[in-house]
Amino acid sequence: MTDFGGAEKVVLSLIRNIDTESFELVPIIFTNPSMQENIFFKYLNKSGKKYHAIFVNGYRIKYLNPLVNIVEAYSVLRKHKFDLIHSHGYRADVIGGLLAKLTGLPLISMCHGFISNDRHLTIYNRLDRFMLRFARKIIAVSSGIKEELIRSGIEAAHITTIQNAVDGSSESETITQNRQTRRQLCNLAEKDFVVGYVGRLSEEKGVKYLIEAISMLNESRVPVKLLIIGEGPQKKALEDFAKERSIEHIVLFAGFQNDIDSWLPAIDVFVLPSLTEGTPMSLLEAMALGIPVIASSVGGVPQVVDSEKNGILVSPGKPEDIKEAIQLLYNNEDLRKRFAEEAQKKIKLTYNIEDWIKKIENEYRNVILQNNPGQNHVGCDEKKHA
To answer: What is the pLDDT of residues 18-29, one digit of tens each?
Structure first.
């Protein structure tokens, strides 16, 4: 964990909602020392959960780092009586795959998608796909990711699709209070129409196209403001791009925020302009709170957003489409309300945390039973460890 994003939110949801009578999750976290103050570690420390932090990139000799990480993770596994390994991300997949071979433990990998912004990431993704062939089960967070894995040579029978989910329960009074508080922090008036983005500021997220759409709206004298929540390698370039378009006064960068649920109510329309996605957590969170959404038609997004029913789908990399969608919602309050209501219904029906956790637990049981065929049942009389 060198960052805190969608995949980390999924892991946190898993830890918070797993049936602790049947399963005990012990996180082995690959992280930079600087990340120890983020929401993930704060939750684990506050709740008294057992975990092991393994620091990455601690040695000047680059290729010594993964070898040391493997030895440290193997040492942790030897100290505990685990029943399976559940990995997230290429580093965990590679190390988890090797440890599964060494220990005989079954490996479940949750695949959140592949990003190939540069040569190094492309190499890591190829290595990840190769190691995933040795997983007992792969959980893809969207059907698109499953299809991509199959194209890379992984057997379809080893892959199941379980889309991400969120807890949609929020009190209306809390939402209203959060809206007022966060707008005050950003010097936003209640009358301001605020478009929002939440996520990593990197090339594949397409935030530049959103800023360009805001610039077009500004030229058309449509009074909207943009609130960008998140950090990433493109932040400086995006700030400069807003200045080039002379809209830095209406594009607000709030930086990384731990408590996204308290920030989302500050916006009137949520936009996800990504070029690639799995099943994005930020999109689910916005819809669960009843915020109208506009999103690129990529990855698992079209399964979440029924265009013109509970939101609007746009073509990736098309700022004109984003601009028109924002303008449509700006001019039509009734449409915003209808989208918001339908979005909340969709989340409660299809992306609720209760059904999601049951699916994950069933995969745990099935894989453990396959690895121990003599057992008649799993997770009832004896707690299982992952």
So the answer is: 999 999 999 998
